[in-house]
Each structure stands twice: as C-alpha cells, then as structure tokens.
Amino acid sequence: MVRTRLTAPERHAQLVAAAVTAFAGGGYAGTTTDQVARLAGVSQPYVIRLFGSKQELFLATVRHAGDRVGRIWRDAAAEDPTLAGLGAAYKTLLDERDLLVVLLHGFAAGSDPGLGDAVRRCYGELFQLVRELTGCTAEEARDFFAHGMLITVLGAMRVLGPEAVPPDPWMIDLLRALPYQK
C-alpha cells in the first residue's frame, strides 16, 4: 500500500473536519485536542503544532463553519438573490448537522474573552453578507437570522433534517409556520 503525503492545506482541512465532528459532540469546553487528533489520525502534539492551542483550533473550526454558510449563500444568490433563496440554501446545511451544531457552540462560547471577538465577527460578517446579497433592510435581515437560528436549533435537536425524529404535534405546528419555504 502506497501512502500519499497530504499537503499542508489538505492536512489543515482534515484537522478542521475532525474538529467539526469533535466540537459538535462536546462543545468547546468538553472537547480536547487529543480527541480531534484521534479522529484525524494524527498525534495531539501535531494538532498543537499546526494550530497553537485548542482555542485557535476552535476558532478555525467556527470560521470554517461560517465560511461554509457564506459560500452556500453566495452560490444561492447567483441564482436567486432573495431571502427566500438564501433560506432554502441554508436548509441544505441540515445535511451537515455537525456544522450547524459547531456554529451553535461557537455562539454559546461568544462570552468567552478569548473567543468572543472572533465569534461576533463571524456572525456580523454573515449578517452583512445577507444584506449585501439581497439588498434587505437591517430589520429584514434580523428576522431572517431569527428564523435561521430557529432552523439551526431544530436541526441540532433533530426536529429537521435527514435524521429527524418522528414529529410531536408541536413540531408539526412549528414546522408549518417556518418562513422561506420553497
């Protein structure tokens, strides 16, 4: 068996992908760099050598998640630059549940002094991106984000998405009321 050596960007992407899985499961406080290393098949010192600290690894993971959302929205806006178009595209991320859970963990860690500025910047950049892509008002973007957070929470709880649990009556009522349906 011939082993191919990964390039630095490929190794970075591999570690961030492992970190998405690990941080989705344990959050910032409950995840170790050793867990990420084991998922990626590398040593824990190698993770630290590449990222410097668990904090920097987590921030790279949150940035990755934010960048993924931004790419989804840019692609959607090329065809349908409306809030409905972006909302429908966001729902495709329900297939990437761990990514959405990482975003939730990132926002929850936003009060941490070492994480807060970067997490708020990520959220703010996404807010501005929606306004730029759609031309919507700040109020319309606020409502879009409020609904998006609801969709994110419902996806994390497995109320929405490919791993959805059988719906309770309240779920059915809530899902019927979701905006940006296509």
From TrEMBL:
Q: Which UniProt keywords apply?
A: DNA-binding
The signal peptide annotation in the UniProt record is none
Coiled-coil stretches, from where to where?
none
| Annotated ranges, domain HTH tetR-type | 9-69
Q: Which residues bind DNA?
A: 32-51
Q: Which organism is it from?
A: Actinoplanes couchii
Task: Output this protein's name.
Answer: TetR family transcriptional regulator
| InterPro entries, per database record | Homeodomain-like_sf, HTH-type_TetR-like_transc_reg, HTH_TetR
Which ranges does the record mark as transmembrane?
none
